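Re: export button greyed out
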Amino acid sequence: MAPETNTATDTMTNDPILKVEHLSMRFGGLMAINDLSFEAQRGEITALIGPNGAGKTTVFNCVTGFYKPTMGMISMRQASGKTFLLERMPDFEITRDAKVARTFQNIRLFTGLTVLENLLVAQHNTLMKASGYTILGLLGLPAYKNASAASIELAKHWLEKAHLIERADDPAGDLPYGAQRRLEIARAMCTGPEFLCLDEPAAGLNPRESLALNELLTGIRRDTGTSILLIEHDMSVVMEISDHVVVLEYGQKISDGTPDHVKNDPKVIAAYLGVEDEEVEEVIEEIEEIEEGGKH
Amino acid sequence: MANITTNPESAGGSLTARALREGFYAGIVSLGLFVLFVGLETTQNIRNELVLRQRWGLLLTFVLVAAVGRFLTVAYVRPWVAARKAAAVARVRDESAPDSFFKRNFNAIAIVALILYPILAMLIFGVQGSLKWVDNFGIQILIYVMLAWGLNIVVGLAGLLDLGYVAFYAVGAYSYALLSQHFGFSFWVLLPLAGILAAFWGMILGFPVLRLKGDYLAIVTLAFGEIIRLVLINWTEVTRGTFGISSIPKASVFGIWSFDVGAANNFAKVFGLPMSSAYYKVFLFYLILALALLTAYVTIRLRRMPVGRAWEALREDEIACRSLGINTVTTKLTAFSIGAMFGGFAGSFFAVRQGFVSPESFVFLESAIILSIVVLGGMGSLVGIAVAAAVMVGGTELLREMQFLKQIFGPDFTPELYRMLIFGLAMVIVMVWKPRGFVGSREPTAFLKERKAVSGSFTKEGHG
Amino acid sequence: MEYFIQQLVNGLTLGSIYGLIAIGYTMVYGIIGMINFAHGDIFMLGGFAALIIFLVITSIFVGLPVVILLLIMMAAAMLTAALWNWTIEKVAYRPLRGSFRLAPLITAIGMSITLSNFIQVTQGPRNKPIPPLVSSVYNVFGISIALKQIIIVLLTVILLTVFWYIVNKTSLGRAQRATEQDRKMAALLGIDVDRTISITFIMGAGLAAVAGTMYLMYYGVAVFSDGFIPGVKAFTAAVLGGIGSLPGAVIGGLLIGLIESLWSAYFTIDYKDVATFSILAIVLIFKPSGILGRPEVEKV
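Workaround output, generated via the alternate export path:
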């Protein structure tokens, strides 16, 4: 396999949905992210990878408004052409208005609510409007009833996609781990996002669950055209489903391009050496691949 | 073989020995605990000096009860409970058995029983004799049911720990008392107004404190509750301080029939009944029943609305809520102010019932009682809370009735004195016995195929 | 100026008492994360134990030196309060450890109601006055300082030093701090967590009992309902200083004492408790971690 020289600028369509420019985030004396710029293209799966502590989750938290960046600009352009400056918006508005949804590294489900209820909570803002901010709904007007039925239909749709329809009436906390991951993604999709941020969705999954996840993610992209930003450690997921990879180390971007390009970037290999065991194995494999490529 | 046969006996022997030992320790410890407070009593003599009165017999009783109780617990009760538990696990539970008629229609039966209650009381005890049953038991319990249901929105659903709920009760009561005295508005005008005012206060107090979490929120709400009470005490020009506001006008039946003795449209006069305050009490009973049912109805409806689901989601995980585009500040504020509104309704009812309000009625203890009813009932469960209110408030009211105890403990015995002591102990015992309250499970608000109760082990109690 | 310093002295005395109680709150909160609502009533219980022992001793030995009398009162109060707190922890709080967060809070409130009503039932609801124990007053540059004020402040300083030593320099203190950080890990490392928590309750009760004795000596009266207001104020002090921090509790106590006496002196005595509670609310809203507490960072 020959090393590829593709970079982000070579992608065919240049229609970024998310533009991160000169993003910096400082925690006390620690520079978690330092002057980071990258773009995520519309309709693509962009992966954000890097060794532990590289600042991936911090980028996520900046994009989704849970942290306010020290410096920089994060702009999100919807398909309608409407542009939002995410760094200026509170977290819940980013989901509500800019249509950016996210999941969490440590799953955050409403464990005491049923699977179905989890998905209904995600449709809060649509339902809130339909219920006339509760007042009309309390009176039992049909508008709310219709919206309520529609919300259950949407929930059903995503439950089927996530293979959770059988468990719809069980408490979310009762699901096995892999199903909880899928439920969290389905819940995020119920907010009707244009841009979906997934924080290590494959962490802790067994191979079968991993496969189900891949299927769900590619299905989401194919059917809804939702763009995805993904943090992942599992290289098989990254390499298989992402269109574009951004590599971080110590809060800085060290590589940016197609999976093949990144895989063969010596900087990336260097960054991964001497980190976590499983990742070292990955890297060693990759080096061997490069060496083989060099011989050809 | 011999070993095997003697095993149970020696186990039994060591159990008895252990029980004896623990009983002995319990006796020693209780001797230490009670020797000063029970063995000796401080009383004032004629010259107003403190003197000691010795009560060694009573102390001995305390110590013996503790020691024997401990012995019996260790030797008999615990093995029995363990055996029962094991038996219960072994027994295959038949979950498909249909619920009994009573269980299925519990709510309807309960409501009908409540509606019939004053009539039955009048029939059984006579018009005048029913007073006690309708007022002390019926109205008293229903006020707490309503308050606890109101607080349940804040604590049980939204998971916001509020230790100052009584403040809104006070706002409602004083709103009615002051506005009716100064402007002569009637109860039916002031009831909604008191609710709105309390909700408004809920918002004002809620806004700064809602970004706090857990115990901090609890303490700030406690502080606000105390501030409101202290202002009521000290702002004497308006509230008349500790004297309180008396002769608050009575409510009327929608202005049609009055309960004022002199009025031409007096209820008893119109219907040609003998004059009695019992009719007013019965009217008040139905009034508070209606208010409580309104609270329950609104709560049930709200739970199925987006805002109610958002409350419960907030209790489960606030950060996840924010990631789903839910404005947590307004969501918390609605919970706080709707809870406060029901507190306000209950407050204005309280003022109308007593005809008198003073800061004495709005002490922290009241907040603690209401909160404990919510938690004892099982957070979020309306039925559990109603049961808890009936048990805790009704149980302590019952003490007043237990005159036969005088025959046991002597004529000086006044059961009322022990009311709060028993209330406190009951709080402790119920919590240790059932930490999640009487009803620990949660009813889902929507379902695809079947409504399955969510076990309490999955629900969270909130962080705010 | 003299008036101001006089108020400072009064505030310092009151603040010392609050500080002593606050330590019990802050330690228990630090180690098991619960607000021990009954702690104020343990303080009241300590005061009553001291009162009863005072009556016993004075009826047996007439003319005992006041120092010895006070020491005996304090010792009896500490023993009784410690035994109570130890029992309460064992019976009411331990079964709920690690369960539902609200359950221990409700139990503690229940315990608080139980304790104050227990004293009301067994000792009667009336105020219990005792003759003044220490009545000397010194006049220093126009400021009158009562001997009892000196005793209270001195005793607080001594107890705090001992306490500081225990927590920071002994293995018991290390076990407490370890349990505070991570109970499970502490247990894995061989620390007897149950025992450590029991000792924490005993220590807290001991200090509260000293505070109760001092309160009795200072005001010369005990009443069953005395647990609540000083208890809430001491808790305010603990929060103000930063809950979980020992020096914080004392600083918080002193601040509350000073605020209270200065407010009463310069504004109006009626609203002195309103001032305390307002300060609590303001501090919590703007700096929830208190003066010396560590700020909590929200983990996403």
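Chain C has one domain: 2-286. The button fix ships in the next patch.
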